[in-house]
Amino acid sequence: MSAFAVPQSTGVDTEPGGLSDRDRRILDFERQWWKYSGAKEQAIRELFDLSAARYYQVLNALIDNPQALAADPLLVKRLRRMRATRQRERSARRLGAAD
Questions:
Q1: Which of the residues 4, 55, 59, 92 could staple to 50 if both were Cys, CB 3.0 to 4.6 A apart?
Q2: Nearest CA among 50, 51, 75 for reference residue 65
């Protein structure tokens, strides 16, 4: 049994217009803090059966979902800030490389 105990899900909505089980599990998972990125990527594969790249695509779509914001505003706003910071850093590197 995995050290990462999160119930398996079909990803089907349990409430009309609500978040799917998988979406709720992803938000729960993102509340954790990871010391090493490799450990998080391994947990992603074990818990969600997704590659890290696909997981982050799903996560980015999820944090743009107003229902996710309503479900956990502090977490979603933190994740949005982190994403915006990474985007700014990537843009700055690209602009700096063009000089």
A1: 55
A2: 75
pLDDT tens-digit readout, 29-76: 999 988 887 899 999 999 999 999 999 999 999 999 999 999 999 999
> Rounded CA gap, 26 and 10, in Å?
13
**Are 59 and 79 a contacting pair, CB within 8 Å?**
yes
Amino acid at position 12, single letter: V
**Tokens in use for 94?**
């690209």
Radius of gyration of the chain (CA): 15
Which CA distances in Å does 70 have to 23, 49, 66, 82, 83? 13, 26, 6, 18, 19
Indicate the pTM of the whole model: 0.75
The residue to which tokens 């074990």 are assigned: 46
Question: How big is the CA angle at 47 (ends 28 and 72), to the nearest 5 degrees?
Answer: 15
